[in-house]
Give the backbone structure.
Amino acid sequence: MNDIKLNEVIERSKKIRELYHQLELTHHGSEWTVEEDALAF
């Protein structure tokens, strides 16, 4: 298994979140709030 550095994990997570924001805008017209993210989790 490759060693993944913490910074790489953080950057990948940010990119995934950006993609979800785009999806939310497309389907709901707005980005979810932090509370909505937590509830969905």
The chain is about 75% helix and 0% strand. The mean pLDDT is 88. The chain has one domain: 6-40.
